Amino acid sequence: MFHGTITEELTSHEEWSHYNENIIEDQKDFVYVKFNGLHLKSMENLQSCISLRVCILSNNFITDIHPLQSCIKLVKLDLHGNQIKSLPDTKFWSGLKKLKLLYLHDNGFVKLKNICMLSACPSLIALTMFDCPVSLKKGYRHVLVNSIWPLKALDYHVISDEEIIQNWHLPERFKS
């Protein structure tokens, strides 16, 4: 069991000892990172991973995702099962122009207004937020699908046209 930072985790493994002296410098070339279930509390060292495309940090103790701001090439970000209670502002999300998949379920999000910050993420097509307190709020799904325009799936369910347009129902001949 590990309770530290990503750099400590990377440099603590004996089989990687020959990489230890250059690990910080080499982080800029990382494309894929998977540190799930390691009880990480911080990811401040990921800010140097400017080439990162896939980041899986699920089931840890992470509370702050601001260090990912410099990871502008991210396509998939999995942060489910952490202790995140709020999301960064729209400036953070607008910088992640290539982010398509975002897994945030099983976190501590409470405010729907804070989740709507994701509307600034221009390419986000799939989002998970189930098992968060905010997902129990009335109108949760409707607000999110009408705030995040590129979104095609929420909580592993495809978004229908009827969900996007308020109080509109497809004529019977167009229904599936």
Automatic annotation (TrEMBL):
Keywords: Leucine-rich repeat, Repeat. It comes from the Eukaryota. Pfam families: LRR_4 (PF12799). Coiled coil: none annotated. PANTHER family: LEUCINE-RICH REPEAT AND IQ DOMAIN-CONTAINING PROTEIN 3 (PTHR46723). This is Leucine rich repeats and IQ motif containing 3.
